[in-house]
Every structure is written in structure tokens, then in C-alpha cells.
Amino acid sequence: MTSYSAQETDTSLGTLSLPHIILWLDPLPRPGYENMAADELLSRRSESWLRVYDWSVPSVSYGYFDTAACARSLFPGADAYIRRWTGGGIVDHRHGVTYTITLPARDDGSLYPQSALLYEWIHGALARALRSSGVECTLLKEDAPDGGRACWASPVASDIVDTHGRKLAGAGQRRYRGAVLHQGLIQQCEPSEGWSRRLAQLLADAVTVISDAQPWEGFNTELAALCREKYLAPSWEDETHGRRKISR
Fold it and tell me: Mean pLDDT by 10-residue block, N- to C-terminus, for the chain (248 residues)?
């Protein structure tokens, strides 16, 4: 196993803290398109959210500018392949724990720190939450050698790794109109129950926990509409992304 250089400290943004976050322990395993739509709906809200969720069918997701064909070639045999709204590589969700963090656009119009620093801050908090759950880990200091499109084959700076350099957690981000969507996955470790509450507490001064399948009134209607209009539309699977052909 190749060993990579890791950071001695978790984050240079230790003073950054949200005033409040809602931890949604989504009790309903959902198909991939519904999970993607739910995450996008959270990113439109005026609150910060941490959602922990599962998949109703064995699924693989791929970054916005990747292709379903490449995802199928890397991870054959899944029941569903779904494009994410975020970037990042191709991820096999048949193993591991999936979570999403959303940060709303700020009222004063100011922007969050640049993506690399925000990624480091979130993963620094996640690493501490995992360590408190019995997982030995740290942050990768710099990008590992490129292993291709499979997300877990190419760890990048601030991904979480174990003591042997194995990647344990990675994520993709998207910024839209001042808001941030961070979709993450934890694999190759088994954090103890309560890790998500610990993460929420490390990210925010106050935490509200909900475990309803519908986190606000009208959510199901909004979800069905977004699935129909975007994530189930043929254009979402179009490899041109409405702009250009993928080079072969």
C-alpha cells in the first residue's frame, strides 16, 4: 500500500463555524435520482443542512462532466448510474455512508472561503468526528498520483485517509448563486453510531436533529417536480451536457 503525506493539523479554518445546522437523518432509502434532487432542494434553502442517507438500489454516481458509459465500465453491475450536480470522480455507492452538507447564500452577499479551504474545513471536522468514533485517520496534505476517473483511486488534498494512506472519505462540491452543495462519501471504515451528530456539532454552534421522511411541508411535491423536470429528464443523461460532445 502506497503511503501519502498527511497533514499534522486538520484545518486552517478552525475558527469558521456556522450559527446553526439541521441534521437530517433521512430514514427513507431513495433511488439515485431522488437522492440527487433532495440534495439540490436542500441547497436552495435558507438554512445549513447535514443530510445522512441511503440508496434504495445498488447505485454508482458520476460527476457532472463525466459519463454514464465510463461509470458502467469502471463499476459494472450496479442497478442505477446517476449524474451528480457536483463535480468529482465516479463513486460506487454500493458500500459506505453517504452524506450531504449545504450552506445557504449569505444575506450580505459575501462568499464562503474558496473551495479548497472549505473542503479542508469540512473534512477537518469530519476527521475529528470519525476519530471520536474510533476511526484512525487524518487529512491528505497533497494530491496523490492520478489513478483515473474512479474517485477512490485518486485521493486529492484534504481527502481523509487512514494510517496506511487508504482513502476513507472524499466529496464533490458545487457553488450556485452563493450557496454551496457538498456531497460526500465515507468508505472502508465503520464509524460508530453518533458520528453525524458529532460532525454537526463541530460545524455549527447549534444543531437541530430531524428524522422525518419529509423534512418540511411540501418537500415531497418539490422533490417529485425536480425529479421530473431535471433528474429523470433525457437531457440529464445527455453526454453533451447541452453544450458540447465528449471527446472520445
Answer: 32 68 98 98 98 98 91 95 92 95 93 92 97 95 65 78 92 94 95 95 97 98 98 85 46
Could you give the residue numbers annotated as active site? 151
The answer to whether the beta carbons of residues 186 and 168 sit under 8 Å apart is: yes
CA 28 – CA 212 distance, rounded (Å): 9
Is 189 in contact with 106 (CB distance < 8 Å)? no
Instruction: Please indicate, yes or no, if residue 133 is contained in any of the structural domains.
Output: yes
Q: How many other C-beta atoms lie within 10 A of the C-beta of residue 159?
A: 24
Q: Quick check: 89 and 150 in contact, CB under 8 A?
A: yes
In angstroms, rounded to a whole number, what is the distance separating the alpha carbons of residues 39 and 180?
A: 11
Q: Which domain holds residue 163?
A: 18-237
- Residue length of the chain: 248
The answer to whether the predicted template modeling score (pTM) of the entire model surpasses 0.90 is no
Amino acid 61 reads S
98, containing H or E segment: strand 97-103
By the 8 A CB rule, do 98 and 55 touch?
yes
Kindly report the CATH number assigned to the domain that includes residue 128.
3.30.930.10
Is 106 among the domain residues? yes
